């Protein structure tokens, strides 16, 4: 499984991958068993130390994917936005067509499962700490509560040690600067939060290019 990744859209800055994982932690897990792909959707915890990346999450124990072994692909889908050709400054000279700007990461590596109480409890605590804070809640897994501890029997934890990163940021890099700025102006004024997120990513890409010039 490989991602079509033209050189212009090949993002190599792992700090931007960190930002993507933090803002879009709901992932797609893909495995293959006997030639048949299997897909689940789940929130993941992302951890990076230098070039070493690890992802953790959990699935319902009855999910047949928990019996898969070998390699896994985890997809982090970032912000995306429609781009109209009418926004370009050179639309009169070129046969511009509609397109879609987006950010996505394909992270693949060895898949490992765990179901011991200590590891599952730690996973739930970390997930709760991240996401309860986002919504202003205060729930936290309590290993000393038998009613909560028994719930662990319903899940299986997963760990993916990532050894291949395909990080695609398709953000109009193949267009002249004037077109890119025009697209940013239109997206940043949109009422859609995803459009504005794409504009922010486009700005970040321009700033990175200017710093590297």
Descriptive account of the structure:
By secondary structure, this protein is α+β, with helices and mostly antiparallel strands. Helix content is 31%, strand content 36%. The chain has helices at residues 14-23, 117-135, 146-149, 177-188, 193-212, and strands spanning 26-33, 36-43, 45-49, 52-60, 70-83, 99-114, 155-170. The protein has a 7-stranded antiparallel β-sheet with strand order 2-1-5-6-7-4-3. β3 (45-49) and β4 form a beta hairpin. α4 runs antiparallel to α5 (193-212). The longest helix is centred in the last third of the chain and has 20 residues, at 193-212. The relative contact order is 0.19.
- Strand/helix succession: HEEEEEEHHEHH
Structural class: alpha+beta
Distance between the termini: 34 Å
Annotation, overall tally of beta strands: 7
Supply the number of helical segments. Answer: 5
Rough shape?
A: elongated
User: Can you tell me the residue ranges where pLDDT is under 50 for at least 5 consecutive residues?
Assistant: none
Instruction: Output the strand order for the largest sheet.
Output: 2-1-5-6-7-4-3
């Amino acid at each position: 499984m490989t991602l079509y990744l033209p050189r212009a859209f090949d993002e190599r800055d792992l700090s931007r991958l960190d930002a993507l994982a933090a803002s879009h932690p709901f992932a797609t897990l893909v495995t293959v068993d006997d030639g048949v792909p299997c897909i689940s959707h789940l929130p993941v915890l992302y951890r990076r130390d230098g070039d070493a990346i690890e992802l953790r999450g959990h699935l319902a124990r009855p999910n047949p994917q928990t019996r898969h072994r070998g390699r896994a692909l985890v997809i982090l889908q970032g912000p995306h936005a429609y781009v109209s050709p009418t926004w370009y400054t050179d639309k009169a000279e070129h046969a511009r067509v509609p397109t879609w700007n987006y950010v996505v990461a394909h992270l693949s590596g060895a898949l490992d499962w765990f179901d011991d109480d200590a590891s599952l409890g730690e996973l739930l605590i970390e997930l709760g700490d991240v996401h309860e804070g986002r919504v202003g809640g205060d729930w936290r897994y309590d290993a000393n509560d038998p009613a909560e501890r028994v719930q662990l029997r319903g899940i299986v934890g997963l760990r993916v040690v990532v050894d291949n990163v395909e990080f695609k940021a398709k953000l109009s890099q193949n267009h002249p600067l004037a077109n890119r700025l025009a697209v940013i102006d239109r997206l940043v004024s949109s009422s859609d939060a995803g459009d504005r997120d794409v504009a922010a990513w486009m700005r970040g890409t321009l700033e990175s290019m200017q710093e590297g010039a």
